[in-house]
Amino acid sequence: MAINTTPALEADGLVKTYSTGRGKPPIRALDGLSFAADAGTVFGLLGPNGAGKSTTIKILSTLAKADAGRATVAGIDVSRHPARVRKAIGFVAQKPVSDPVDTGRENLVLAGRLQGLSAPDARARAAELLDRFGLGDAADRQVKTYSGGMARKLDVAIGLMNRPQVLFLDEPTTGLDPEARAELWAEIEKMTRIENMTVLLTTHYLEEADRLAARLAIVDHGTVVARGTPEELKNGLRGDAVIIELAPDSDPAYALAALANVEALREIGADGRTIRARADLGAATLPQALAALELAGLPVASATVARPSLDDVYLRHTGRTLSKAQNHALENAS
Ligand SMILES: Nc1ncnc2c1ncn2[C@@H]1O[C@H](COP(=O)(O)OP(=O)(O)OP(=O)(O)O)[C@@H](O)[C@H]1O
């Protein structure tokens, strides 16, 4: 059997600039962004708000045009054959698409009809998806009576009505409580398997990328700064993270100077009172680090050793933690 090696999704050097009004400098949302995703897998684009994830999805789903670069979806060039691309994809936007006064079933059937299904096919597919997403009992209730998690599942089901080869999920769990988020993650995993499709997921949740994405690209300022499986990215860091929270009366600059003498520590940095460093054997190195701080008369509030996380990967490639970048993006937006 011939193996299909064409990536299900490919972005090559995408550039997109938005003009922001007279006299104001344009925003370069994408700055040569490239990645490729294999068929039948979940590919994650991870980055804070404003990194360029939605713009990438919009270009790949033909809702926006790139200024430069090339993109293909299911092997189809998005700028040359947008209509063909639209037939091959499903799109779940950040904002809900369902009509709150219609029932879940009515929303699904209407979406299916708009996507070109016959009435019987749309009804059958709606029933199948309602069942799959555990919405069978609520199928004939108005969507305005649904919980946030149920409404989000319905949005995803709407994106699946036409059995897409590629599904775009733009921050699918933003705004959901942890329980609803975990439930939707399980649904996304199951659905990718059952429907045998490729999913492009954007997220600013590290845990979500770690859990769902077979491979991911970390996006910062419109470009990919790191890519690989979550494990490859974490293993690339070598060693454990050593995190020391200084007590309020400890000066981080003095702490950095004191820790520079601990040979086993490397990549030592301070973010406010939080000192982060790496060590091959974190548990053995931590006592040495604490001793060096004590010798310098610098009290510590808490200390931990952790296996590398995607946040460490993010920090390595962008110089800041994802939560910090996310807060910064939200402050700029407000
Ligand atoms: N229509 C637009 N007009 C002007 N600027 C825009 C427009 N859309 C996006 N931008 C800007 O482009 C940059 C990238 O935005 P984009 O929405 O792609 O990022 P994101 O990573 O998806 O973040 P979010 O999760 O907030 O959507 C941001 O600086 C954003 O403010």
Automatic annotation (TrEMBL):
<dbReference type="GO" id="GO:0005524">
    <property type="term" value="F:ATP binding"/>
</dbReference>
<feature type="domain" description="ABC transporter">
    <location>
        <begin position="9"/>
        <end position="246"/>
    </location>
</feature>
<dbReference type="InterPro" id="IPR017871">
    <property type="entry name" value="ABC_transporter-like_CS"/>
</dbReference>
<dbReference type="InterPro" id="IPR003439">
    <property type="entry name" value="ABC_transporter-like_ATP-bd"/>
</dbReference>
<dbReference type="Pfam" id="PF13732">
    <property type="entry name" value="DrrA1-3_C"/>
</dbReference>
<keyword id="KW-0547">Nucleotide-binding</keyword>
<dbReference type="Pfam" id="PF00005">
    <property type="entry name" value="ABC_tran"/>
</dbReference>
<protein>
    <submittedName>
        <fullName>ATP-binding cassette domain-containing protein</fullName>
    </submittedName>
</protein>
<keyword id="KW-0813">Transport</keyword>
<keyword id="KW-0067">ATP-binding</keyword>
<dbReference type="InterPro" id="IPR027417">
    <property type="entry name" value="P-loop_NTPase"/>
</dbReference>
<dbReference type="InterPro" id="IPR025302">
    <property type="entry name" value="DrrA1/2-like_C"/>
</dbReference>
<dbReference type="GO" id="GO:0016887">
    <property type="term" value="F:ATP hydrolysis activity"/>
</dbReference>
<dbReference type="InterPro" id="IPR003593">
    <property type="entry name" value="AAA+_ATPase"/>
</dbReference>
